[in-house]
Amino acid sequence: MDPSTQIPQDAGPAWAEARTRVAVGHNINVSGKLIFHEPVRIEGRFRGEVRSIELVVVSEDGMVEGKVYAPRLLVMGELHGDVVGCDRCVLGPRSRFFGNIETRNLSISEGAYVDGNVRMTRTVTEKTAASGDR
Predict the structure, then answer these.
(1) Considering the domain boundaries, does residue 35 fall inside one?
(2) Residue 79: pLDDT band by 50, 70, 90 thresholds?
(3) How many domains does the chain have?
(4) pLDDT tens string 13-58
């Protein structure tokens, strides 16, 4: 297995510290569709669709309303919507999630709030982060 795709034992803290591109900065509100071919971090408020072929991090002050397509997702803030085609989803200790999660692996930290449905899959869905699904 390629070391870059291995899931660290303590994925939440490791991913929180991962080098990412800030797509929506702190105190910024953005609507639309974001597509990345690298790890991305949402620190402000975003409404729409986020796609990454790597990692999406919703920071503690971040909020996403919409769909997230990514093989790895770390929610430390708030997410209202759907997580699709995720290999590993981690909900941090102060995260708030409202919606549907489709993932192969799910970690929910003590203190996280979840209001929604979870569908555990055996394999990652064919809908890849960079695909043209619209």
Answers:
(1) yes
(2) very high
(3) 1
(4) 555 555 555 666 567 777 899 899 988 999 999 999 999 999 999 9
**Residue-number span of the structural domain to which 57 is assigned:** 9-120
Q: 83 in a domain, yes or no?
A: yes
Tell the residue number behind the tokens 């055996």, with chain if given. 122
Using CB atoms within 10 A of its CB, is residue 107 exposed (0-12), middle (13-18) or buried (19+)? Answer: middle
Backbone phi and psi for residue 6, each to the nearest 5 degrees, phi listed first: -70, 140
Residue 5 is predicted with a pLDDT of: 37
Is the pLDDT at 7 greater than 50, yes or no?
no
